[in-house]
Specification:
One of its GO terms (cellular component) is extracellular space. GO terms for molecular function: metalloaminopeptidase activity; peptide binding; zinc ion binding. Pfam families: Peptidase_M1. It is a single chain. This protein is of the alpha+beta class. It has 3 domains: 498 residues, Neutral Protease Domain 2 (Neutral Protease, domain 2); 157 residues, no CATH class; 95 residues, Beta Barrel (Lipocalin). The protein has 17 helices and 40 strands. A hairpin with a 4-residue loop joins β1 and β2. α6 crosses α8 and α7 packs across α8. The chain is elongated, with a radius of gyration of 35 Å. 41% of the residues are buried. The N terminus is likely disordered. Bound molecules: zinc ion (ZN). The site of zinc ion has 4 residues, from α8. Zinc ion binds next to α8.
């Protein structure tokens, strides 16, 4: 009895040869995300008491082209739907990010270098002579009384004259102005003006331009984290009525529906727009190149007011210039027909005319199918010199040809940008997550669908795949941060990979390789629909994807979103067994027919490290009587043997070196050139997070085994994914180095009777020794010295041989930590 226990313990140790601590990679993430409550339910849906604030805006703004300033009068109607009474409100003043006194604010890079371009120096010193930031002329209540305010950088506290009770609304009247920034002068400019000296004209991109309500919600209270340029926006939904006064010859592209086309558009333009509403296959030119060029020369000093209304949007932006060409077409979605429109200066030709509106259409179609139909009447893409930036119904998109020519790469970049920025209408413009806090929530989900749009609508173009994230994920762990890092805490060099690409690849893995398209698409759609026009948090996304699909994804979230671990699976061994029947009487208690299984004891470890040595023989004994129990009649040893006869059994050992648990795809290439794939779910890592063995039965013989052959899991090291291995130093070399001769090895070969009563067999194949504990698969030994060996796969175990001088018999000592067993060779 004692013997059996010791033996079992010893082998139990063997099977769990893992020296690394259990990390609980499959434990629920409940303690890592905010707990559910009445506002956010445990299913991931908005809770029964969910609320959010609302802000309607009426704005009259005047664009002064001569001085590059904008002046506005706005009325905010703020609805307090929260259960709280509010004595003050916070208003966002993003234009203050470039204000002189806020010098250290939003300064992304303050390092000096030996050599620096003037432009970089300009970013570094910021536009020192430029009086950026708001002048707030007045803040009044509905009765015209002044309200006290206090400005803290990009946030303004409005100390209400009367407390705003829960369930009530209040009006704020704010008069303001600010000088529009030259967007080439400030790093990370999402808006501002671009000046064209050739024809002395300007394109104005006007965004985060009017004082806007900060978000007040159940998770943050006031989201009044300062604008530091990287972390974008958190905004409330509302209806807008906006009047924009610009030079008479300007054309305005804006969020919302144009309310007064007859006073701002020519009869011809209106006629063409009507045509465009019925043109579903190609855009109609509303303003042609010739007309735009004529416009450029006009330089009217008179003004004209464009009126736009927008319903249920979280922001409002517009572009204005006399340089704009304009094309438009209709895009029919199941529940909405949208006007897709592009505005661009002639500098964008010809590629903008060819690609922009088409890209809008593709984005509208793919995103609508994946989430919900685009709900707004227009979707606009405006050309800019660089970067892309999104707002409701309108986006500013970089990408211009040089002398009318654009490289393939630049064209793909430009179209990708348009798709991406149009896609932001869903995330975060409608599924309105908090960008200032979690950049990945909108950028990650949006890039995922943007890449899907590119892959589906532009086959042959580059798009993100799991391979794309490998360089980032195999990077220096001292620099890497988890995806679950607040927006402004990420490095400028890293945020693209960490907040855009890594979540994208994570969602691709879930969709293509973990959940499958059907389950994933349904769950993703559920999330989008649950949270449209609302403010979701990460937990709401995590919970919904599980809730809508009956899939436990906590292991995936834990690893992919909360750590900087990477995927690195190693195919450390493949053992080959072959079954054939023969009669045998060795150690055969009942004289039953025995089956021998050939195991590749040698080939897994031999010099060539391949299958060329063939399988090796181990015995398959008859099931002992005590194992039968009440199932005696159900087990037929002979039938089992017959079924296995001639088949190939492969035991694979896979190690998890990178830390992330993932499903494992195994490709078998057979000697006849055919192949087959098996996929193991991530659950195989539940009990041992570092190493697993799995056994497969194949009719055909295998010549090569590969892990993750289709590169689905962003494995950072593909060199350890195949068997036979190609290792630089083989164990054969180690043997040679240790100068152990064949004849010395042969003195160790034999059967040893161990003192607890079990047997150990040592045998040799070429220059390798193998140890076989009764009934267990063979393990290879590799030498530390001429008499001491380590056991492969059992890092703490040691095998020592010694010749007993009195009896002249070979003895063996197996030790592992503080356990050890001695034995004597008996044959
Ligand atoms: Zn984006």
């Amino acid at each position: 009895m004692r013997t059996t226990i010791c033996l079992l313990l010893f082998f139990a140790f063997n099977l769990q040869a893992q020296n690394q601590p259990w990390k609980g990679k499959f434990e629920p993430i409940d303690n890592m995300i905010s707990p559910p409550n009445a506002y956010r339910s445990a299913s991931g849906a908005p809770g029964s008491a969910y609320w959010q604030q609302r802000a309607n805006y009426k704005i009259k703004a005047v664009l002064d082209e001569k001085n590059n300033t904008i002046t506005g009068e706005e009325t905010i109607t703020y609805f307090n739907n929260s259960p709280d009474d509010l004595s003050y409100l916070w208003i966002q003043l993003e234009q203050n990010v470039n204000k002189k006194e806020n010098e250290d604010f939003g300064s992304i890079n303050n390092r000096m270098k030996d050599s620096i371009t003037t432009r970089q120096m300009q970013f570094l010193t910021r536009a020192i002579d430029f009086p950026a930031g708001y002048s707030i002329k007045s803040v009044k209540d509905a009765n015209g009384n002044n309200i006290k305010t206090m400005v803290n950088n990009t946030m303004m506290k409005v100390k209400l004259n009367t407390v705003l009770k829960s369930g009530e609304s209040t009006k704020l009247l704010i008069d303001w102005s600010y000088p529009i920034t030259d967007r080439s002068m400030f790093l990370l400019s999402r808006e501002g003006y671009e000046y064209f000296p050739e024809d002395d004209n300007t394109v104005y991109l006007i965004a985060h331009w009017f004082p806007r309500m900060a978000v007040y919600n159940d998770t943050e209270g006031w989201q009044n984290q300062q604008f530091q340029k990287l972390g974008e926006f958190a905004l409330e939904f509302g209806d807008y009525e906006v009047e924009i006064t610009v030079p008479q010859d300007h054309v305005v592209a804006s969020t919302g529906t144009l309310q007064n086309p007859e006073s701002v558009l020519t009869k011809t333009q209106r006629k063409r727009l009507e045509q465009a509403k019925k043109s579903f296959d190609k855009p109609v030119m509303v303003i042609t190149k010739e007309e735009a060029e004529a416009n450029e020369k006009e330089k009217s000093t008179k003004q004209k007011t464009w009126k736009f209304n927008a319903k249920n949007v979280r922001d409002f932006a517009f572009a204005s210039s006399r340089k704009f060409m304009w094309d438009a077409q209709a895009v029919k979605l199941p529940t909405n027909t949208v006007m897709a429109m592009s505005f661009y200066p002639k500098e964008g030709l010809p590629v903008w005319q060819e690609e922009s509106t088409k890209a809008i259409m593709h984005a509208l179609q793919v995103y609508s199918e994946a989430t919900f139909d685009y709900p707004y009447p227009v979707c606009i893409s405006v050309n800019t010199s660089n970067i892309g930036m999104e707002f409701p119904m309108i986006s500013f998109n970089g990408g211009r040809p040089k002398n009318g020519k654009i490289s393939d790469g630049a064209k793909q970049g430009m179209v990708g940008t348009i798709i991406h920025e149009v896609g932001h209408n869903w995330f975060p413009m409608i599924v309105s997550s908090d960008e200032r806090k979690w950049m990945w929530m909108d950028e990650g989900l949006n890039t995922f669908l943007h890449q899907r749009t590119v892959a589906e609508r532009y086959p042959g173009w580059n798009s993100v795949t799991p391979k794309s994230i490998v360089p980032f994920m195999s990077g220096d762990k001292d620099i890497l941060r988890p995806i679950m890092t607040n927006s402004d805490n990420e490095l400028l060099s890293q945020f693209g990979a960490n907040f855009y690409l890594k979540p994208t690849v994570g969602l691709q893995i879930l969709r293509n390789s973990v959940m499958g398209k059907e389950l994933f698409d349904e769950a993703f759609k559920e999330y989008a629909n649950r949270w449209k026009y609302k403010h979701p948090n990460p937990a709401d996304l995590f919970r919904t994807l599980e809730d809508a699909s009956a899939t436990d994804l906590d292991w995936f979230y834990r690893g992919w979103f909360f750590t900087t671990d990477n995927v690195d699976m190693e195919l450390s061994n493949v053992k080959w067994f072959k079954v054939y029947e023969e009669n045998s009487n060795i150690e055969d208690q009942k004289n039953n027919s025995k089956t021998k299984i050939a195991a590749n004891g040698s080939n897994a470890n031999a010099k060539a490290k391949d299958f060329s040595n063939g399988p090796e023989v181990v015995t398959m004994t008859t099931t002992p009587d005590q194992s039968y129990g009440q199932f005696l009649s159900r087990i037929d040893d002979a039938a089992v043997r017959k079924q296995l006869s001639g088949k190939n059994i492969y035991e694979v050992t896979i190690k998890n070196l990178g830390g992330l648990v993932m499903p494992v795809t195994i490709e078998w290439i057979f000697t006849d050139g055919t192949s087959e794939t098996n996929t193991l779910p991530s659950d195989i890592w539940r009990r041992n997070e570092y190493e697993i063995q799995e056994t497969f039965i194949k009719d055909k013989e295998v010549s090569k085994v590969n892990l993750d052959p289709n590169f689905e899991f962003a494995d950072t090291n593909m060199e350890n994914n195949s068997f036979p291995k190609t290792e630089s130093v083989s164990e054969f070399d180690t043997f040679k180095e240790n100068k152990i001769t064949e004849s010395v090895l042969d003195t160790y070969v034999g059967t040893y009777k161990m003192d607890p009563g079990f047997e150990v067999k040592i045998y040799r194949k070429d220059m390798s020794l193998y140890i076989n504990f009764a009934g267990q698969p063979a393990d290879s030994l590799y030498p530390i010295s001429e008499t001491e060996f380590k056991v492969k796969g059992m890092p703490n175990a040691k095998v020592e041989f010694a010749s007993n001088k009195e009896t002249n018999k070979m003895t063996i000592k197996l030790s592992k930590e503080d356990e050890s067993y001695k034995g004597v060779k008996v044959e």
